[in-house]
Structures are given as structure tokens and as C-alpha cells.
Amino acid sequence: MAGKKFFYSTIIIIGIVTIMAFLLTPVAQAANEQGNSHAALELPIWSIIPFVGLLLTIGVMSFIAANYSHSHLAHLWENNRNKFIIAILWSIPVIILLSTLGEWTPLRHSLEDYFSFITLLFALFVISGGIYLEGDLKATPWVNVGFLAIGSVLANLIGTTGASMLLIRPLLKTNSERRHTTHIPVFFIFTVSNIGGCLLPIGDPPLFLGYLKGVPFFWTLNLVVEWFTAIVLMLVIFWAWDTWRYKAETDYALKLDQMLYQPLKLKGGLNFLWLIGVLLAVIFITPNNLAVWGLDSGPLKFLREYIMLGMAAASLFLTSPLSAETRQKNNFTFAPILEVAYLFIGIFVAMVPALEILKAKGAEFGITEPWQFFWATGSLSSVLDNAPTYLTFLSLAQGLVATNPAAYPAPPDLAHLGMSAEFLAAISLGAVFMGANTYIGNGPNFMVKAIADEWGYKMPDFFTYILKYSLPILIPVFIVITLIYLI
To answer: What is the mean pLDDT of the chain?
Structure first.
């Protein structure tokens, strides 16, 4: 039965990304003939109601599922198919609105972003699921700090998604004998799945989009001081919290943790070959290179995504099939990536009006200082996907620099972008850091939550995550970053 579920889940998720490719290809061809840019639409404010409704639905249903697990609504929310239906229902009003206006370009852009987004997440999820760090370390605060610190560095080399999928399971295994552990995957989301990945474009999707727009590949290394400050603050807070919860563990739990100790041992290392293939595709198959190669239209417009799917298929069918020991020990299922795929298709469609309104009226917000860009980009990255939010504020900053170049000079390495270094730093930090504020701020967040749920960890619901963790922990850290570096 489990094998059949694995098989059907594989067919479903591969079907999603394949169908998206075929649907987008003819639309992309037409767009290349008419041009890819479009003026921001003047949409009514009520057009954001479906997006707000979807966010509230996710929040309320996850709250019910976490706190009233035996209710009918909780059982309804457990089924990923129902999540997909809900997401589509909230998307329909936006599709109808855009169809009545005859404006399909914003939706096409959003669907293209979704296709690239879910393909990358799917590839990294599948490949990393075949890599197993066997062992069970002692679940001490310092060991857990080590996991978060290593993950925060690794996130810049294999992306926040890759690092999250590689390390979350051994971290959960290490702490499986403990009972007071809810905070551990939450801090993992804060550090490894978000803040850690701001030093290279492959670290987080918004930075990768910036690279595609012309930001030099190594420019984000200029953010190393802000990155280091934020990571150190987070690790100090985590160590204090984890030490407090560790002291509350029973003697039985601590003795069991010691008895089950095993050193870490890597298995499925050949999957790193496919992981490197994904990263090379991300780095080198850019829109500019596709144009040079004459592949910027037609089916090969999505060559990067096809290669990433090929790497995932190689891992799944050649290196580590579903029956492989590594996937079995990882408790690998497609449920987490299916949940992300189903919910985010609705998010990417429903958020189109919100992004269009932001583009049209963003200049009216009076954002002229780096700290304002940091908080504005970050606040919207908490509820919108942080990648398109990053691009929106990038355009806003470019317009500000263009209208007053003397007040906002662009350094030589950013002159071709017409971008102030201070603005770019603030936008980059806001998009990456504050993607941790909610489960939907960044793709890996929901995946880590779903995996932790599968392992039996009592993860906070949507609202509790915000009220108990992100507001009291992250916001003070971001205020410190603002005061030290952005004012």
C-alpha cells in the first residue's frame, strides 16, 4: 500500500510540473512576440480579497488542525487534495477579474515564477531525500546549535531548500528522544531556511532573481556582516531557549538519548552529483544565456527547469529509488512537497492583484530610506512570496535613483542597474530575513513544518508561529539590524 502511495504521489507531482511546462510554453512564445514587460494594472483595492481570504483560510485551518485535531475541519485540512481545491477556489475570482480586463501578462509572469519555484523545490526535495545522514547524536543545546550554524553556511552553497531538506531529518532524529522540542524546527526555519541564505544568489530565490536582473554574482557577499550579526543573535537566543528546555527533560529521556547515540555517517552521497547538476543549471542557464543560444522562445525557454526535473528523475529512478534504504530511513514521502505545490499555486495566482497594486502605487508610499525599504520589503515578503516582492521593490528603488541620481548615487558595480548599494542591501536583507516571519514567506518553511509534523513534532499553527515565535524573537533581531546597519 505504501509503495502504491509513493508511486501515485510521484505521478501527481511530476504531472503538475510537466503540465505547467506545456501550458506556459505557448503563452511564453506569444509573450516573446509582444514583449515581456507590462505596465502595472490599476486594480481596485477589493481585488486583494481572494489573497487575504486564502491567507486567512490557511491560518484558521492550520490553527484548527493543531488545536482541534479530532474535528471534521481538521480531518478535511489533513488531505492535500482538499488544500488544492481550496487554493483553486480562491484563485478563480482573480482569474475572472483578469479575463474581464483582457490582461493575462501578470498571471503568465506569476505562473512562470510558480513553475520555476516549484520545480526547484521539487528537485532539491527529491534529491536531498536520497541523502541520509545516519546516526543519532546527543541532543544537547550545543549539538543543536552546531546543526543550525552548519545549515546557515550550507544554505549559501546549496540553497535554503537544499540545506533544509538535507539537515532537518537528522536534526529531528537527534532530538526524537526529547519531549520539549517544538522550538527546534521553528529556529531551524528561522536560520537555515531563511536568514542563512543571503550571501550568494543560489542561497534564496529573491537573490537569484536579482542575479538574473544583473546583480553581480558575488555582490551579496557584501552582506556578510549583517548575515553574521543576525545568525549570531539567533544562535545565542536559541542556545538560551534550548538550554532551558533541555533542563526540563526527564532523566529517562536524557538517558535514552545517550543510549541511542550513533555518530553521523553519510549515505547516498552519489546524489550530490545530481545536486551539483541542479545548481549548475541555476547558475548558468539564465535568460541572457538562453537568448545568446537562441533558446529564449519555444519549449526550450524552460530548459533550466527541464534539466532540474531530469536531475530529480536521475536521483529517483537511478540512484535512490523509493525503495532505497536512504529514503526509507528518511521517512521520505511526497506529502510535504505536495502540500507546498497545492497551496502555493493558489498563492501565486491570488497575489497577482496585490503585486500589481504595489507596482502601480508603490511610489506613493513615501519609501526613500534604506530602513524603509528593509521593513517594507520584509513585511510584504512575510505574506507574499519573497521573490516577486524583491523584484517589485527593486523596480521601486531603481525609479527613485533614476529621478534623483545625485541623492542616491549608484556605485560602479551597480551602475548598469541604476541601483544604490544601500537600497539593494536593504531590499535583499528584507526579502531573505523576513521570509521567516510566517510559514508562507519562503518555500522551505512549509516543507520543514510538514516534515516535522510527520516525525511527530507538535509544530505551532499559523497564528501561534507568528505570535509566540516570529514576533517576539525575529522582530527584535531585525530592529537591531536596522539600528546598526540601516540608519
So the answer is: 85
